């Protein structure tokens, strides 16, 4: 008989929440890692995600950066909903149609605000974007 820790059960509920996200139907993402204060998501691009130059549209990369920041913060929100209050992204390079790995790290957890840093790199390691996000804690919990 295996007994999961409360942390493992909570992270499993976050994974289920991720899998139920409607945006996954048009922006293919994979939740690769979830640890306290950290998350890693991969963007699996296809031709629908390209801009006019044939590269991944920056808005899609920004969407995944926001998501990975949210999940990094949610690992420490004790089940309470967070919403993005502020989000800033710097694009450093274009990403050709290749897998993009995003990482998020909780920088500071306050009583109502969570601050995170996020990065996006191609699978080959090219740093394509960096972002900062502030997430506001809501007074209601999500359902696993």
Summarize the structure.
Helices cover 22% and strands 42% of the residues. The chain has 144 residues and is an alpha+beta fold. A six-stranded antiparallel sheet has the order 1-2-4-5-6-3, covered by helices on one side.
Protein architecture, described:
By secondary structure, the chain is of the alpha+beta class. The protein has one domain (6-141): Hotdog Thioesterase (Thiol Ester Dehydrase, Chain A, Roll). 22% of the residues lie in helices and 42% in strands. The chain contains 2 helices and 6 strands. Strands 1-2-4-5-6-3 form a 6-stranded antiparallel beta sheet, covered by helices on one side. A hairpin with a 3-residue loop joins strand 4 and strand 5 (113-122). It is globular and about 45 Å long. The two termini are 23 Å apart.
């Amino acid at each position: 008989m295996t007994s999961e820790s409360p942390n493992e059960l909570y992270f499993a509920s976050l994974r289920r929440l991720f899998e139920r996200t409607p945006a996954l139907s048009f922006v293919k993402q994979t939740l690769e890692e979830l640890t306290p204060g950290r998350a890693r998501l991969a963007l699996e691009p296809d031709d629908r995600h390209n801009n006019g130059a044939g590269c991944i549209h920056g808005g899609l990369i920004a969407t995944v950066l926001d998501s990975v920041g949210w999940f990094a913060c949610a690992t420490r929100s004790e089940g309470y909903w967070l919403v993005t209050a502020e989000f800033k992204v710097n694009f450093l390079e274009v990403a050709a149609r290749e897998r993009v790995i995003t990482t998020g790290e909780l920088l500071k957890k306050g009583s109502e605000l969570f601050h995170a840093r996020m990065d996006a790199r191609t699978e080959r390691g090219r740093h394509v974007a960096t972002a900062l996000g502030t997430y506001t804690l809501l007074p209601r919990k999500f359902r696993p």
